[in-house]
Design a protein that fits this description.
2 copies of one chain form a homodimer.
Chain A (H helix, E strand, L loop, with lengths): L5 H8 L3 H9 L7 E3 L2 E3 L2 H15 L4 H13 L4 H42 L3 H5 L10 H7 L15
Antiparallel strand pairs in A: 1-2
Helix pairs in contact in A: 5-7
The structure holds a DNA duplex (30 and 30 nucleotides).
Chain lengths: 160, 160
DNA sequence: CCTTGACCTGAAGTCAGGTTTAGGTTCTAT
DNA sequence: ATAGAACCTAAACCTGACTTCAGGTCAAGG
């Protein structure tokens, strides 16, 4: 079975050696082999790194990823827990994607806004434009970006 | 013109008072008014908070957002810089969304993987399945999640 | 009057996720 | 067999984005 040194892993995954050691310290490679102190990485740890990256991007912290890796080391008794984790993280990622869609809408609206300001030499006109008067392609951006602002107007007072 | 106290802003935006003061300290509200030391927030700062949230999600740091807010305070001479910033951040957000798409593909592949493992009582079979043998709806997930792994096989040696 | 609640400040503390440092050990090629 | 490259550890340090703390001001109501 192919084995790799920490330096080879670092090159292959473009991750600093110090980070790989940090991950090991945090318990992200349970059962990592060593020969006379030197770490021997295998395809198992390579796959772990891919999963670490995935779970990190999905919003998990290192400590939670450690828990997952421990489940992996425990074997078949934890399949359901592992599947359920991926189900939860799917929802987390989808929510983050919705937030990014709104962010993107705001960004594109602002691009248009400043294009207008540049053309006019001032923001005075564009600032006054109501959604209904905006170009077809801009209005939906505005609506999405600012959607939680129509209704929420006076939610500051009496909500019990 | 409607003015708000820091407490009202905190309620309206669901942001801790300590964070609003921190943002002020970091220069995110240039030209914020005060009467005898007490901050008076207006629609201007409300809009600033929406933009702060947007720019933060797009990946900017507080210091960079401060620069943007200073441009806003400088007036019409900075419209182009502000537009260009939003153009750059659009690209940043799109890239993050692509990464999340890959993350999601990996997550959904893993869900399927563990479903199989649960059915079989072991990972032994599912681990062996080549992309070509995977169900129609799973293969594309696998391909997307692991796409940088077919070609990159031996990029460790000689790349000049 | 005097207490209570909402505001203020500067400085220190926290937390996650690494990175750097200092001092050693092991491998590999000549 | 020896130099240099690549590895090791523990512990300190770093950064960003807040949060908490200790102590103080100020306006309004009982």
């Amino acid at each position: 079975m192919q084995m790799y040194t920490i330096g080879q892993m670092s090159d292959m995954f473009q991750i600093p050696i110090s980070t790989l050691r940090y991950y090991d310290r945090e318990g992200l490679f349970p059962g990592l082999e060593r020969t006379s102190g030197i770490r021997k990485f295998s395809e198992k740890e390579a796959e772990a790194l891919r999963v670490i990256d995935c779970l990190k991007r999905s919003g998990l912290e290192i400590r939670e990823i450690k828990t997952f890796m421990e489940w992996c080391a425990e074997g078949s008794s934890t399949y359901k827990q592992r599947r359920d984790l991926f189900v939860r993280q799917e929802e987390a990622v989808r929510e983050e994607m919705r937030r990014l869609e709104k962010t993107l809408a705001m960004i594109r609206y602002k691009q248009w806004y400043y294009e207008q300001a540049i053309k006019d030499g001032t923001e005075d006109r564009v600032r006054q434009i109501a959604p209904e008067e905006m170009p077809e392609d801009i209005r939906p951006l505005y609506e999405l970006a600012f959607e939680d602002m129509k209704t929420d107007r006076k939610q500051t007072e009496k909500d019990s």
